[in-house]
Amino acid sequence: xxxxxxxxxxxxxxxxxxxxxxxxxxxxxxxxxxxxxxxxxxxxxxxxxxxxxxxxxxxxxxxxxxxx
Amino acid sequence: xxxxxxxxxxxxxxxxxxxxxxxxxxxxxxxxxxxxxxxxxxxxxxxxxxxxxxxxxxxxxxxxxxxxxxxxxxxxxxxxxxxxxxxxxxxxxxxxxxxxxxxxxxxxxxxxxxxxxxxxxxxxxxxxxxxxxxxxxxxxxxxxxxxxxxxxxxxxxxxxxxxxxxxx
Lengths: 68, 168
Hints:
heterodimer; A: mainly alpha; about 5% strand; rod-shaped; B: Glutaredoxin; 2 domains
């Protein structure tokens, strides 16, 4: 009986370890995508706004070397 | 953040080579939005901007003023707290399909909390731009790099777990 309980505990701990690794991988994947991401149709509005600012002359290519 | 380093699908250099010291046609438009939070990422960007500028001579960089950045974020609230944001518009992709599909990428530098993370993020960004200027399928390369980074993260987690197990 104690051996059986030991097996169950080992299985449980193994499942928890795997679950943690999967959770951690997913968490890191999401964080990475938050930091680096592609621009697609969801960003179309923002992209258009920036491009329009350039076309209207509100934004000019930065000519200096240092940011204020 | 490790290097995003795929070097595939390259097209010939535009017009005149960089080795000859003549500017090539812009591939990207780079926009910097920064409302000026007192953050580590803001400081790292300001301190290293000259270097970024030097590395990205062939592509125009548009820096929104603090007021423009704040106004922009008032209209797009989900971006608050992620700045400095560096958005890169891929002119080749935009010529092909406008903004309805893939058309660039962005780095939300403000999400990186330590100076080292922010600096590494900025360096990875600069490296990525320089090495992918001639890419014919930038989207595929970015997605492949993100997958690779995810996989590297997974390996790192497993190795840490194993190391802990071994240490006990």
